[in-house]
Design goal:
Number of helices: 1
Distance between the termini: 28 Å
Helix content: under 10%
Structural class: mainly beta
Strand content: over 45%
CATH superfamily of one domain: Hcp1-like
CATH topology of one domain: Pnp Oxidase, Chain A
Length: 148
């Protein structure tokens, strides 16, 4: 059998999410892995070139959104509720992409996450859908690493 010159890409449906102190939270969808660096335009008055230079500025990490079927497991809501009553329980976590045999391949680790939004399910008596809850997580930083 011939070898492929380029490895196949990973599938987007093989992943899991981890939060410090939360066990058994499985999600159907995670989005928001977006990182940006603001450009800062700068020019000094005596520069020969008549254009600005672009320097790198502040780094930004978009909030992560995670959706799952709602169950009787209230660990995520309890974490959010701690923040509602004044606790600042920041947690680290990760989104891990796995291969077809569920081996960890790529990891996006985030630091100092906290739930900024909890959205309950929509109800419709004529639909045939699973009730979905969504959480939005603010993070200080995200780092991409290859899993061991």
């Amino acid at each position: 059998m011939p070898d492929r010159p380029v490895p196949d890409p990973f599938r987007g449906y093989n992943f899991r999410v981890e939060f410090d102190g939360v066990t058994g939270a499985a999600f159907r969808e995670v989005s928001g892995l977006t990182f940006e660096i603001d450009p800062v335009e700068y020019r000094e008055g005596n520069e020969q070139h008549l254009h600005v230079r672009k320097l790198f500025g502040l780094r930004k990490f978009t909030n992560l959104q995670a959706k799952r079927g709602i169950t009787t497991d209230l660990q995520l809501y309890k974490w959010y509720h701690e923040l509602l009553v004044g606790g600042a329980n920041l947690r680290d976590g990760a989104i891990i992409l796995t291969d077809e045999v569920q081996k960890d391949r790529i990891r996006w680790s985030f630091k100092n996450g906290w739930i900024s939004k909890w959205e309950g399910p929509s109800f419709n008596a004529t639909a045939n859908d699973v009730a979905i809850e969504m959480i939005e997580i603010c993070v200080d930083r995200v780092e991409l690493t290859k899993a061991a």
